[in-house]
Amino acid sequence: MKKSIFLYLFLLLSGIGFSQTFSGKIKDKTGSALVGVNIFNANNQSNVISDLDGTFIIKANLGDNLSFSMIGFATKNLIASLNMIVVLEEEAKNLTDVVVVGYGTKKVGSITGSVSQIKSEDLLKNPAQSAIQSIQGKAAGVNIVANDEPGASPTILIRGLGTILSSSTPLYVIDGVEANGINGLSANDIAAIDILKDASSLAIYGQKGSNGVVLITTKKGKNGEIKVNMDTYLGQKFIQRTVKMADSYRYAYYNNVARGSSNFYNLNQPVNTNWLNEITTVGEVNNNSFSFSGGNETANYYFGASNYNEKGILTGSEYKRNNIISKNEFKALNDKVKITQFLNISSVNGVSKPLSAFTSAYKQSPIMPVYNPNGRFAAPIINSLGYNDMTGIERYNNVSNPAADLYYANNKFKSLTLFGSIGAEVKLLSDLKFNSNFGATFDWSKSFSYNANREIWLYQNPTNSELDFPTPDRINSLSQNRSDSYEWNWDNYITYKKKFGKHDFTIISGMSRTTTRNSEYLSATRYNVPEQNNYWYLNFSSNNVSIDPNSVVSNAHSTPIVSLAYFGRVEYEFNDKYLLSASLRREGISNFQANKRWDNFPALSAGWIISKEDFLSSNKTIHFLKVRAGYGVVGNGKGTPSVNNVLFSSGNNYSFGNNSQINPGSIIPYQIDPNLTWEKMKEIDFGLDFRLVNNNLSGSIDVYNRKTDKIILPVEYPNVLSPGAVYVNAGEVTNKGFELSLNWKKEINKNWSYNIGGNISLNDNKLSKVYNSFFKNLIGGSLNNGVSTKQVREGEALGSFYVYEVKGYDSDGRFILSSEKVNAGSYLPKYTYGLNIGVNYKRMDLTIFSYGVGGNKVYNGKKAQRFGGENIESSSLENFWLPSNTNASNPKPSNDVPQPSTYFVEDGSYFRINNITFGYTLPKIIKRIDKLRIYATALNPFIFTKYSGYSPEISGSALGGAGVELDAYPTNKTYLIGLNINL
Amino acid sequence: MKNTRYSLIISVIVITLFSFSSCESDLNVEPNDAQSELDFLNNPDNAVQLVNGVYNKLLDYNMYSFSWIGVTSITSDDADKGSSPGDTGSDKNKLDNLDFQSNLISFNDTWNGRFDGVYRANNAIYYLNQLDIDSALKTRLIGETKFLRALFYFDLVRCFGGVPLVTEKIDINDIETVNNVVYKRKTKQETYHQIELDLLDAIDKLPVQNSPDNVGRATKGAAQAMLAKAYLYQEKWQEAFDMSGNVISSGQYSLMLNYADVWKEIGENKSESIFEVQATLGKGIRDYTNVQGPRGTPDLGWGFNTPSLTLANSYEVGDIRKTAAIMFVPSVLWDGFVAPVTWNNPRYNYKAYQSSISESWNGDKGETAKNLRVLKYSDIVLIRAEAAFKLGNVSEAISKINLIRNRVGLPIRTSLTLQQLYNERRWEMAMEHDRWFDIVRTGQAQAAMAADGKTFTIGINELFPIPQDQIIQSGNRLSQNPGY
After folding, report:
1. pLDDT at B434
2. Number of neighbours of residue B4 by Cβ within 10 angstroms
3. From start to end of B310-464, where are the E strands?
């Protein structure tokens, strides 16, 4: 006993002496040894790394402060003791993830603003022609309105409608290149998409950021072996939902009643054409992409190529895109200089077919066959027996033959888009670096359109022959169009990062210069070129008579918009717990007059990571909890004409003289308001981010109040003051909202895991003030027949429908309408939500993404456009007014232009399953192949809605076509199977 | 060490900011798509261009096309809606039935078109006064612009009664002026007064005749003719008598030998023409021909504004003006074109017909070379006759009527009643957008429309309603016409 005490004392005494070493072992949660852990002794500054079996030996004295850290694990600070066994816990993967914010990156955990991130894996689970479409439903507050035309990009609305201009696109920044879209970037080449939503994050982007900023980071090569990735998918597209149109009998019945005749249209028709079927076909889509990447300590590279091919559902429409992307990073001068080069080339070519064919198909009569007996396309002519007959005497409607519209439309387009950036990062000092980044987009496009004038005249005049064609010098016409554009931005900023003990500072300061809207076009038309399409060039024209030069050659260049900004931001973190960020941007833009150009946009945000506090740090349920608040001011100067000065247009010509010489004429198309200045959006945002229950449940809540002041709008003035709209700062719009997103991830056992995520956003939009008296009385939502459906109402949602209320029927089966118009709702949804489910079982994975909106209204405008003899929806005849049925849901058939009424306003809520994907990862048979997965996907397979038209999602401007369905464009659903291979 | 570090940081910041501060001037972007005011005004040639821009308004769709045809012709007893029975043309069926609702698109187009013209004229005068150009040219240009402004206001007052009188460029931020000028209707008398002021000034400034290159521009005779017509509408008989006398005695104009030639291309800008809207291939009146072109097979247009049966039956036997104004179907047209039974309607407006065989034609029905005759010598002769009659100078009236009748080979009159005078006007000016205004101003409206099977309500239908959209936009400051 006494001996052991002496031994202990001896050891203890020797331990108090100098150069004593401590040893221990480091393990992870599952008990495996952790190699490469960094152990730092704050007292003597010695530093060691744990070895292969997790053991470490460090010079330390008893009671020294040791710090254990490794990327991916939470740092632990412990007092040195004998035979330490240290267990390091994995830091929740997402918290160490880095998010791109303006001019820098931040860890997700320390973000004080509202940012949503979508990673590459999620994008690839939801293949679509545009990566933007794949985001739908995955980020709270982000509403994507799909556009199914081949090659078209969807529109994106972030946090409701803060601005009402027709250009409500957010700013896209792709690896430092500012762009208006992700034109030509393949989804396979995107590593992550970060969406900045609230003002405190957006303020650093100033005027460009007021609709939100979408930051796209492309993939780059990683240190190590070459990685090869291939992805291919193949699929078919169909019409998702159709509107049932009347058949020949119902058509004849309805139109007879509308005309007040009993037999103008014969009720027994031999022909029953379904026009939608005649112009659509099954679409095809095919995408192949390939990439390889790699690197070492001084350089890395990423190279990708992809090819996308689509045949649209509108017969004859095609879209092909080839992409090449190259991204390289070089480090030089001992890691002091890093140069990044990124280049994306995309080449598109396609055939466009007129979308108006869908509307013609909706309106054209089923009693008309596609072809006449003589083989020409049929025209709507009726004979005295009430049948469609090319020798008949009366034309019964103004609608063209949709099949002929498609057949005679010969329009092809090609474009080459090059965008890229080159940047340098110079480490001036250990804590000071300088970044310079230059990004540019070049675009060259060409298109032509060929019109077979004589062929079209022949089908419209079925009983005439070629010799009767009145203008043999214009048998056909060919227009060739060329355009190009060049936009660029240049950012320079310095970053200072310093950590003193518990204080962590990051300061950036810099400037940014941008030129946008810089494009030119040239278009020329000549007549009588040969019929074969290989001769469709203007020099082949055999008609050399020069006519009004104004209509033959046209060339114009847009006026560019230049903006210049200086910005600075300070970020401060104390003890990894308390976060503060402040930024200021001073920006000038060329749009406004000289004394109205500059303005300041500040932002301030703070955050508190409560979970790191002592009272919560050992809490088993709450793993991570952060509250944050932010205030920011963001400006918008885009969407106005490029120069706010009185301008004289040309082209208002008139002929004088005995020889009818055309003389040039000029007018001032619109007046300007010299006081036009920045539209400013001010927002307060409160948020909460959390991870609970062992990291299984994560989520965030945001509450925001956004006020857009001095909103810029094109306002219609009385013609005698200004025939064209004048851009003025018209009023104030508020958007108040709430966003919640929750994600539950659980790994049941080695075979089963699942995750469920959902997000819901509520937004209340109101036009709270109107300063401009002309704007006060503005009407909009025109149906192009003299009827307007919307009106500006102070105190109500923007873009509200203002129509008469249906009160009943009069004795003639027509509506009795209220004498005053009433507010019938707005096209803006009151809430949007998304729900995602993912299930993994062994090698199989299943994901379902869905999206829905509610509280919005749609105006079924196409039902309200009648001139006479058009087709109607089958439902109009289901229950219509008769003297014996005065309580019907539809009025008596009529050809009158209907007044705007609540009859046409419908509930536009919908819930759509965006994507169902089932995949299977093959077992690793071949050593070379890292991962081989096959998958099957259904895109937009189902939509549930009460709306009776083609699509409840209709984009447009708030006081224009948004929410008003005037054209009958159906939405698509796609089924595809694919394969991805990682080597 | 610290010093070098700080100085390095500072120098980097300074260099960065310095090298880019010169960018500020980059914000002065020169416009590429339209001319700035300064550049435009520096070029004296541009003065003429501004005035040409006012003339250009006459070619627009909302000026003389479907809506104007609707409110001046389809409303009257001279013409019916036409086209296919089921085609409403948006509101033409309502116009035909005299169902004048304030939300009809035709009224709004008519209002907007003319005020757009007034805007252009006011702008032109504003800049002309600032430009440094040859004073003779400036005088003439101001005269032309005032003539055109008077033309716009004359249409407005005939359609709507008193309207807001805007004769100067108004700053859009000057709310008070806008409320008092743009949103306030003046009386009919005040509106006519402004028209007279403009025309009297134009008469002083305009030349008697145009040089060959300037044919189509307003002349002194055009201003006098329009003023004579304005006096007639106000029943200022003496002034109308004198002013129309000025036109007649100027010796510039005479009746053409062949009545039917007046509206054909060979009659363009000839002796009977006082003022025409000039149209040519590639720069014509949007859809004027198309709206009234025969509908059916072969399709020459939409088929609206068909001459009525009452018009066709009203002519005296042997009056060639009937077959010059009315195209009967089926028949063979003057150029040899066959008007077949497969055309929808039995009659079409012959004066609006543009021949694809014998006249300028490039296949575009929507924009043809058909000139619109706004003022003709025969119109002035009739005005002289009517004014003379009303003043008691029946012999002068008879003499003028006989000029008209002689030209078309009808027996001359030895005595004249007012109704015969009115009829002569109807036959001479058929389908020329005057009939509705004529029956309203002379008090014949109720009887004439009743004979055509329509109901004209006295006290209401003399004026068209102010378009509802205009009243809403004015915040209800514009007053509506009685009965609407």
Report:
1. 94
2. 9
3. 326-328, 331-332, 338-339, 347-349, 372-376
Q: Determine the residue type at A189.
A: D
Residue in B closest to A555 by C-alpha: B33
Task: Using an 8 Å CB-CB cutoff, list chain B residues near A657.
Answer: 212-216
Res A4: pLDDT: 47
Q: Please name the residue that has the structure tokens 């009977």.
A: B272
AA identity, residue A183: N
ipTM value: 0.91
Interchain contact, B29 vs A550, CB within 8 Å: no
Structure tokens at A113: 């603003």
Helix (H) or strand (E) holding A680, with range, is strand A679-692
B6 is written with which tokens?
A: 């700080």
Tell me the per-residue pLDDT of A375-396, one tens digit each, with 9 for 90 and over: 889 989 888 888 988 888 788 8
Q: Which residues, at least 6 apart from B25, have a Cβ–Cβ distance to it below 8 Å?
A: none
For residue A243, the surrounding DSSP H or E stretch is: none
A952-971 residues touching B, CB cutoff 8 A: none
Chain A positions in Cβ-Cβ contact with residue B85 (cut-off 8 Å): 259
Report residue A333 CA to chain centroid gap: 41
Q: What is the mean pLDDT of residues A417-438?
A: 89
For residue A215, the SS3 value is strand
- Residue pair A587/A598 in contact (Cβ under 8 Å)? The answer is yes
Cβ(A91)–Cβ(A176) under 8 Å?
no
- Of A50-54, A207-211, A301-305, B329-333, which range is least confident? A207-211
Quote the tokens at residue A859.
């105006």
Give DSSP secondary structure letters for A779-812: EEEE-SSS-EEEE--TTS-TTEEEEEEEEEE-TT
Please give the distance of CA A951 from its chain centroid, rounded to a whole number: 18
Residue of A nearest to B173 (CA): A673
pLDDT at B249: 95
Q: CA A106, CA A167: separation in Å to the nearest integer? A: 30
Taking Cα atoms as reference points, which of A865, A921, A890, A910 lies closest to residue A146? Answer: A910
CB contact (8 A) between residue A773 and residue B175:
yes
Exposure on the CB side of residue A683, measured as CA atoms within 13 A: 36
Give pLDDT tens digits for A187-203: 778 888 888 877 777 77
CB B181 within 8 A of CB B170: yes
pLDDT at A15: 40
Q: What angle do CA B342, B343, B349 make, to 5 degrees?
A: 160
Alpha helices in A819-978 (DSSP H): none
> Residue A697: pLDDT band by 50, 70, 90 thresholds?
confident
Select the residue from A720, A784, A794, A901 to test the B interface by mutation, using most B Cβ atoms within 10 A. Answer: A720
pLDDT on residue A589:
87
Checking DSSP bridges between strand A931-945 and strand A857-859, what pairing results, if any?
unpaired
Distant-in-sequence, close-in-space partners of B65: CB < 8 Å, separation ≥ 6: B285, B286, B287, B288, B291
DSSP state of B180: I
Interface of A with B in 833-862 (CB under 8 A): none
The pair of structure tokens assigned to A533 is 């399409």
Helical (H) or strand (E) element with B61: helix B61-64
Q: Is A894 on the interface with B (CB under 8 A)?
A: no
User: Are the beta carbons of B403 and B257 closer than 8 angstroms?
Assistant: no
Question: Prior bond to B294 cis, omega within 30?
Answer: no
Query: Which amino acid is located at A725 in the chain?
Result: A
**Chain A: residue whose CA lies nearest to B53:** A665
Who wins on pLDDT, B436 or A516?
A: B436
Question: What confidence tier does A796 reach under pLDDT thresholds 50, 70, 90?
Answer: confident
Q: Do A380 and A399 form a contact (C-beta atoms < 8 A)?
A: yes
Within 8 A by CB and 6+ apart from A833, the residues are A758, A759, A760, A761, A851, A852, A853, A854
Q: pLDDT tens across A226-247, in order?
A: 888 888 989 999 998 888 999 9
